Amino acid sequence: MKRYRFIIQRFNPEVDKSPFFRGYDVELKRGGTVLEGLFYIHKYIDPSLSFRFSCRGSVCGSCAMNINHTYRLACETQAEWLGSRIRIRPLNLPVIKDLVVDMERFWDCYEAIRPYLISNSKPEREHVMNPSERQRLDGLIECILCGLCFSACPVTSLNDEYLGPHSLLKLHRFISDTRDGSERHDLIRQRKGIWLCRSAFSCQEVCPKGLSPARSINRMRIKR
Ligand code: FES
Predict the structure, then answer these.
(1) Would you say the pTM of this structure is higher than 0.90?
(2) Which end of the chain is more exposed for a tag (fewer CB within 10 A), N or C?
């Protein structure tokens, strides 16, 4: 067993005036993840600690948070990679409680790009893609919508209107899909979209699936 000091931002808007940090001593087995550290605290020290998780396998994106100043998934981050002091904050979104944030703005941005296939013909039969058409979607369809890129992006916190890297990656995904018949040029051209990106590439640095929304944005700028 190895001991760690977890320092976690706590905040219950119903009780606290402002967020504060509280430290917890946590014991984890070799290979133990930050999420397992949070389970330890919840079970043995403080059951009032709130955080989200579901799959525990880097699939659902629920456990996204800021860990030692980098946005990461808690379930895929091993505590021993980080040293003995582990500082945890929520995503850069309004806090509901502790590490649980309100994702409404994130989902509103996503909805704005119409994230579904739109056919411009009657679906009389299945629309089959050939292998190269399908291959064009590699690097665009693996996004798990965890919110790490949205929180790391320097523009989303400065401009409330910006659609954010997750939405623009998905926009590129639908534009690149041969089954989609809709004209999405209005979405590409809109002021709060690709032209607000400052190419900081923070989205690419934190994406747990190795995707690059910034590269998608640059490609859409060239193609527009
Ligand atoms: S719990 Fe699902 S991605 Fe971490």
Answers:
(1) yes
(2) N
